[in-house]
């Protein structure tokens, strides 16, 4: 699945790296290493991660003539090792429900990601209750209600403009009442009122913890893979205020810059847990660094 979503990135990076090897092999010198670096950063992987790859290639091959396959193998291994902490597993509360709060800037793909994640959990035999905590965006509530209908799970919605914290509280309450495995709660993502939003997120956390001590067990930050470095830096404030525990990288299929997973890992110090690979119900995959690294180049 990840391989499918990374087609665009692979087309660019794979071609770029292959282009470095016009003849039989190439001498690894400063010229080669510079060209390699330039091609790597075209995938948005950022200078830090690209530098580490360049250094690894230099360490292994400097002064030698290398072949394409050797270099691809080294790059793949280095990417794997940079992402080795990432995994597609959700935290789990010892006794259900596990409460998952989902945060992210509007338009990042948050509602769709909640729908896909819910479908994923449901398809794996888990029961769940959704909470439409973005009470100011009627469209978000509607969209989430449609997802709940498709999946066949309960959803808690407040009146338009209701206190998001109260919807969050009721969602956890409902999940406890019906014995659901998961409560998955949407939140608002209006960036223009950032400080209010941070307070709102903190209040939601407090209220959830009051209903179920220790909750939320997971706070997922949804990022748009096509949004570029600036948007991602903006989301950092979000991540810190909300106490995020993992990342969902949406729209990876729409981007030729799938390398962005690497700086995200580096900047947020949070595991990428899921990747969005399209708009359909099935278009999400639990993140796996090995398949990711393989799919980038092969
Ligand atoms: P929200 O405002 O953050 O809740 O964003 P939405 O979930 O409404 O998504 C915004 C747009 O991005 C919609 O048109 C979605 O269909 C689309 N979208 C979300 N996730 C993905 C994905 O993984 N791949 C693609 N191609 N589109 C996505």
From TrEMBL:
It is a peripheral membrane protein. It catalyses: GTP + H2O = GDP + phosphate + H(+). Residues 271-284 form the SRP54-type proteins GTP-binding domain. GO terms for molecular function: GTP binding; GTPase activity; signal recognition particle binding. Its EC number is 3.6.5.4. It is an enzyme of class 3 (hydrolase). GTP binds at residues 104-111, 186-190. Its main location: membrane. PROSITE patterns: SRP54. InterPro entries: AAA+_ATPase, P-loop_NTPase, Signal_recog_particl_SRP54_hlx, SR_rcpt_FtsY, SRP/SRP_N, SRP54_GTPase_dom, SRP54_N_sf. Keywords: Cell membrane, Cytoplasm, GTP-binding, Hydrolase, Membrane, Nucleotide-binding, Receptor. GO terms for cellular component: cytoplasm; plasma membrane. It is found in: Cell membrane; Cytoplasm. Belongs to the GTP-binding SRP family. FtsY subfamily. Involved in targeting and insertion of nascent membrane proteins into the cytoplasmic membrane. Acts as a receptor for the complex formed by the signal recognition particle (SRP) and the ribosome-nascent chain (RNC). Part of the signal recognition particle protein translocation system, which is composed of SRP and FtsY. This is Signal recognition particle receptor FtsY.
């Amino acid at each position: 699945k990840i391989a499918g979503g990374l087609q665009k990135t692979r087309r660019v990076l794979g071609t770029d790296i292959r282009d470095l090897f016009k003849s039989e092999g190439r001498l690894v010198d400063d010229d080669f290493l510079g060209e390699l670096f330039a091609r790597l950063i075209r995938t948005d992987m950022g200078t830090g991660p690209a530098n580490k790859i360049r250094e690894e290639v230099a360490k292994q091959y400097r002064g030698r003539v290398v072949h394409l396959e050797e270099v691809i193998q080294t790059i793949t291994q280095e990417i794997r090792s940079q992402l080795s902490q990432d995994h597609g597993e959700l935290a789990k509360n010892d006794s259900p429900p596990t409460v998952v709060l989902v945060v992210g800037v509007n338009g990042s793909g948050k509602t769709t990601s909640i729908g896909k994640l819910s479908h994923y959990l449901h398809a794996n035999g888990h029961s769940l209750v959704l909470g439409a905590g973005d009470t100011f965006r009627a469209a978000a509530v509607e969209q989430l209600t449609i997802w709940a209908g498709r999946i066949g799970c309960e959803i808690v919605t407040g009146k338009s403009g209701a206190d998001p914290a109260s919807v969050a509280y009721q969602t956890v309450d409902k999940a406890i009442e019906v014995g659901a495995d998961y409560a998955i709660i949407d939140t608002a993502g209006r960036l223009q009122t950032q400080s209010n939003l941070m307070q709102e997120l903190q209040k939601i956390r407090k209220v959830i913890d009051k209903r179920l001590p220790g909750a939320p067990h997971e706070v997922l930050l949804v990022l748009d893979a096509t949004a570029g470095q600036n948007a991602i830096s903006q989301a950092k404030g979000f991540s810190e205020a909300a106490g995020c525990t993992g990342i969902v990288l949406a729209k990876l299929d729409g981007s030729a810059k799938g390398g962005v997973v690497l700086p995200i890992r580096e900047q947020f110090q949070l595991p990428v847990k899921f990747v969005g690979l399209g708009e359909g119900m099935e278009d999400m995959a639990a993140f796996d660094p090995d398949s990711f690294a393989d799919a980038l180049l092969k």
